């Protein structure tokens, strides 16, 4: 979870700077999505090789070294695809900023993204039960390829004939410092949320004795709540309630 969230956050921060400079953010997103899907196809082979290597290493090392190597491998396994996902989200945000004429806001995009994540977490339970881990990974990989193809189609058919929208909202004196403070506070909110989520997994895992399904259900509920809040915020904002 730590490697995955670090990758998402790092990729989003990097993508927020680079996507603005890109001629076609949707094409960049499509390439990243296809790369992640390819990585998913290779995942069973990668984990098999890693498992054999870790077993051989464990027989010749102490417990502390074993935990260190295990953590390092998990970091390598999750960090880079998660960074690609985070970078891709920044590209989608930039595409919406350019071509949606204000119809989509960041809260809506974030809400739809997390709603998709919640749906995926719930579907993972069914896919794992029905076809096992390997088949579930293959299904998700081909879904990723389909998303990449759709993004490419949209980029080639829409970006070529829709003018770039340039809006100068002006700069607010001291606004950058205020933004950094708000971003830091929001980061602390995310940290607290992850602590609570892992705590839930620990508690309900001991009760239900199936950690993978417990994790999927908790992530689903967690992301569904975030998505609902993000989407409801737009409604309340339109009605001038907040």
Descriptive account of the structure:
The protein is mainly alpha-helical. It has a domain at 2-165. Helix content is 84%, strand content 0%. The chain has helices at residues 2-18, 25-58, 63-99, 106-159, 175-208, 211-238. It is globular. 18% of the residues are buried.
Briefly summarize what is shown.
The chain has 242 residues and is mainly α. It contains six helices and no strands. The chain has a domain of 164 residues.
From the structure above, extract its key features.
242 residues, mainly alpha, 84% helix
- The amount of helix comes to over 70%
Shape verdict:
globular
- How far the N terminus sits from the C terminus, by CA atoms, comes to 33 Å
Order of helices and strands: HHHHHH
What's the pLDDT, averaged over the residues? 75
Computed structural class: mainly alpha
User: What is the rounded Rg?
Assistant: 20 Å
For the largest beta-sheet, the strand count, sense and barrel status come to:
none
Q: Determine the strand fraction and express it as a percent band.
A: under 5%
Number of helices: 6
Unreliably modeled segments: 160-175
Number of strands: 0
How would the blueprint of this fold be written?
Elements: H1 2-18, H2 25-58, H3 63-99, H4 106-159, H5 175-208, H6 211-238
Helix pairs in contact: 1-3, 2-3, 2-4, 3-4, 4-6, 5-6
